[in-house]
TrEMBL record:
It catalyses: Hydrolysis of terminal non-reducing N-acetyl-D-hexosamine residues in N-acetyl-beta-D-hexosaminides. It comes from Micromonospora zingiberis. Residues 163-478 form the Glycoside hydrolase family 20 catalytic domain. The lineage of its organism: Bacteria, Bacillati, Actinomycetota, Actinomycetes, Micromonosporales. This is beta-N-acetylhexosaminidase. Its EC number is 3.2.1.52. The active site is at E326 (proton donor). Belongs to the glycosyl hydrolase 20 family. Keywords: Glycosidase, Hydrolase. One of its GO terms (biological process) is glycosaminoglycan metabolic process.
Length: 514
């Protein structure tokens, strides 16, 4: 009888049809345009079908959507292309030729009859799917079936990114992280419509990518990390797996080989690259600026060309990051010549060069990108490089550095660029941040996570969440949507999602977690 009463109650609840628990505007990053239609909520039925344009990349997005929704709903959610029989209802993913949507935009319509996402590209459909995912109740993130009403709020969203470059950086050199950890970080990026993963692959404490022509980089240079742990490196197959997993989530990997400084691990493996031709001891501390490959030796340029050549062949994306930061022991003119020669090597490989903003004084080369990590908002040298043609990715140390502590009592992290709570991560404008850098020179934003003090995936997640969504919103959402109170309220809705997905996060006191 108890069971019957329960069933009756459930039926009564369905008849009363409460509104969908999530509001259409509760999305992070904030969409460009939201038009709620409270009369048009949609209840996903058990037999819903996902119908997709007959295109392999679009169908892949349809399969990924099904894989996101199946565990919690327990529904079969078959994926078919639109050429097949056309059931009503369900979720449709359509490639359209609506030029307004650009390379990554989408339109999402929820009506009482079903859901439709339209985009010009599979990337646009993918971003639309991330929005749809956030419109379901938080328990959609559960890995096991949950008895919930899978109701979606009615209405329409039109959405496009503000900037083409929306990234995060993971330092796998100070501490090494497994392929599985990196894939999980890619999942976090994709949730918030970030499209670049910058991997800081080399530093004083370890070299993390196998290079066939210089094998000791991995076998010797990788065997250390901060604090004396065992280190590690990615094989070519590992690296390819990361690139492919990212590409399937519409994220491009930007690999960094830090040159000419931050190279102690390479010198341990190949003393012939050291200015005094002597191998230094492996380094497990956290100082910077003491090491460099010899800019006066031709062997150094063989090394640079071989390493960047192998990496260019391995990596799918258009960019190679050459580091360039904190080469304190290399005189300015020698440094500039080294960077110029390295830039030419990258150009010769058909890739676009990215470097930390210290490379600014070097001559311009086509398409070159500077990554700003200063804390002042005013740097005439960077502004001058922009006048000579460079574009800029903004990673201001005092807003976007995910290795800064949230508060004085944060157990891990640094504070040299200040404390960065969620509001500080959110309250700045990439378009006007740097004096003398016009809006159209800004490619986008990136949040770096340096890992001197970060040793586990849970610690990565603790530093990323909830600040990564703040940086993501700066990169994606039109400035007109920028509003701290709106952001922290929308962000609060993600706590239960992360909890349901088993993701660690910092319960920042300025966010009204329920
Ligand atoms: C500066 S940011 C560095 C890194 C450190 C970081 C720690 C940059 C380009 N260089 O080598 O890990 O500070 O916050």
């Amino acid at each position: 009888a108890g069971e019957l009463a329960g069933a009756a109650e459930r039926e009564a609840a369905a008849w009363l049809a409460p509104p969908a628990p999530v509001r259409l505007a509760d999305v992070v990053p904030a969409p460009e345009r939201v038009e709620p239609d409270p009369g048009a909520d949609y209840l996903l039925p058990t037999d819903a079908v996902i119908r997709v344009s007959a295109d392999p990349d679009a169908l892949a997005v349809g399969e990924q959507l099904a894989a996101l929704l199946r565990p919690a709903t327990g529904y079969p959610l078959p994926v078919t292309d639109t050429a097949g029989p056309t059931p009503t209802g369900g979720i449709a993913l359509h490639l359209t030729d609506d030029a307004d949507l650009g390379a990554e935009g989408y339109r999402l319509d929820v009506s009482a009859d079903g859901v439709r996402i339209g985009a010009r590209t599979a990337a646009g459909l993918w971003h639309g799917v991330q929005t749809l995912r956030q419109l379901f109740p938080p328990s959609i993130e559960s890995a096991t079936p949950v008895g919930a009403r899978w109701a979606l709020p009615g209405g329409s969203i039109l959405d496009r990114p503000r900037y083409p470059h929306r990234g995060a950086m993971l330092d796998v050199a100070r501490h090494f992280f497994t392929v599985a950890d990196v894939l999980r970080v890619i999942d976090h990026l994709a949730r918030y419509k970030l499209n670049r993963l910058h991997l800081h692959l080399t530093d004083d404490q370890g070299w993390r990518i196998a290079i066939d022509s210089w094998p000791r980089l991995a076998t010797v240079g990788a065997a250390s990390e901060v604090g004396g742990g065992p280190g590690g490196y990615y094989t070519r197959a590992d690296y390819r797996r990361i690139v492919a997993y990212a590409a399937a989530r519409h994220v491009t990997v930007v690999p960094e080989i830090d040159l000419p400084g931050h190279t102690n691990a390479a010198l341990v493996a190949y003393p012939e690259l050291a200015p005094d031709r002597t191998a230094p001891p492996p380094y497990t501390g956290t100082e910077v600026g003491f090491s460099y490959v010899d800019p006066a030796s031709e062997r150094t340029y063989d090394f640079v060309a071989d390493v960047l050549g192998e990496l260019a062949a391995l990596t799918g994306g258009q960019w190679l990051h050459i580091g360039g930061d904190e080469a304190f022991k290399v005189p300015a003119d020698v440094y500039a010549r080294f960077v110029e020669r390295t830039q030419r090597i990258v150009a010769g490989l058909g890739k676009t060069v990215v470097g930390w903003h210290q490379i600014a004084p070097a001559a311009h080369t086509d398409g070159r990108v500077l990554q700003w990590w200063g804390t002042s908002g005013d740097d005439p040298v960077t502004a001058d490089a922009v006048r000579r043609g460079a574009s800029v990715i903004l990673s201001p140390g005092n807003h976007a550095y995910l290795d800064m502590k949230y508060a004085p009592d944060t157990p891990i992290g640094h504070d040299w660029a200040g404390l960065i709570d969620v509001r500080r991560a959110y309250d700045w404008d990439p378009a006007t941040h740097l004096t003398g850098v016009p809006t159209d020179a800004v490619l986008g934003v990136e949040a770096p996570l340096w890992t001197e003090s970060v040793t586990t995936l849970a610690e990565i997640e603790f530093m990323l969440l909830p600040r990564l969504p703040a940086i993501a919103e700066l990169g994606w959402s039109p400035r007109s949507t920028h509003d701290w109170d709106s952001f922290r309220r929308r962000l609060a809705g993600h706590g239960p999602r992360w909890t349901a997905a088993g993701i660690a996060f910092h319960h920042a006191p300025e966010v009204p977690w329920s």
